[in-house]
Amino acid sequence: MEKILNLLELEGNEKELFIEAAGENEQIFATLGVHEDGTPVTDEEWKSATIIIGVPNPGFVKVYPENCKYLQGRMAGPDAFLKGNYVPKDCKIAGCQGAYGQSVSEHMFAMMWALMKLIPQYRDNQFDGKWDDLGYCQTIADKNVLIFGTGDLGVSFAKLCKPFGAHTYGVRRNKEVPAEGIDFMHNFDDVDELLPEMDVVINMAPAGPITNGFMTKERLLKMKKTAIFLNGGRGSFVSSDDMYEVLSSGHLFGAGLDVLDKEPLPAEHPLWKVKNCLITPHKAGFDKIPVTFRKVAKISLENLKRYLNGEALINCIN
């Protein structure tokens, strides 16, 4: 008999579907760790749960779940759970890859347009009461967009760019595998030749041996001075220090960063003050649009059924 701790924010008949999927197994519903009566999940409930569904991040696990056999994270990449003693060694860990494409891509798309139209600078001028024409702006029409990572996030971003006339280039480990919305697929070995031709470069790839530290200062400087760099994947892709040096030197039209290698970015870091840099606090995936929550619930429900039936989990990382 499994003891399920369900932390998801459920709507409509979703709770009934989870009850049906659990069968005779015990299931406790506590949205983000809080029961319907307003009381928090107890230490004993954490410790005794054999299945925990909908954990936002590793730090949310209040007490070491010593009996947990399967943990369903609500984020796309649950690899952070492997870095600490949050769950037992043999616990299965899965994420919700496929739930965040719309939210992250829309956020990064908005950052791109804001940078192209100098919106951050005009906002600064507004606070200073300045009625100044800042000059040259950009458009995505007929421009080259290089997208690292062509899974749910990258494909969603490419599909937003295509109707505006952009040419999309994807980067993935196997360039023989196509992806919707990507005109030309490449692998990482091609990047150094591609960068000088790109107008927008965005990282939507997960962390890994290849992507960690991939966008070096040298590679940033290979980009056009008029190019825009965006990061909605993982902060480890590029150094905040390198980003500051390149932007403050006048290279690049702008940068939009939702993820950084130092989170939170220290208040004293000079990148905060760069006028053509937009920074948001790793929230593109948590824009709280309803479709994201519904997709998280759907993936989690499917995985619960699979686990109880002894089938392979979706997005399992171990």
Shape label: elongated
Largest sheet: 7 strands, parallel
Please provide the ordered H/E string of secondary-structure elements.
EHEHEEEHHEHEEHEHEHEEH
Mean pLDDT: 95
Indicate the radius of gyration in whole angstroms.
Answer: 22 Å
Individual helix count: 9
Using DSSP, what is the number of strands? 12
Structural class given helices, strands, pairing?
alpha/beta
Strand content: 15-25%
Helix percentage range? 25-40%
Contiguous low-pLDDT stretches (5 residues minimum) are none
Strand order, biggest sheet? 8-7-6-9-10-11-12
Question: In summary, what is this structure?
Answer:
With 318 residues, the protein is α/β, with parallel strands linked by helices. The protein has helices at 14-22, 43-48, 101-116, 119-127, 152-161, 191-194, 217-222, 240-248, 290-308, and strands at 3-6, 26-29, 51-55, 70-73, 92-94, 144-148, 167-171, 184-186, 200-203, 228-231, 254-257, 277-279.
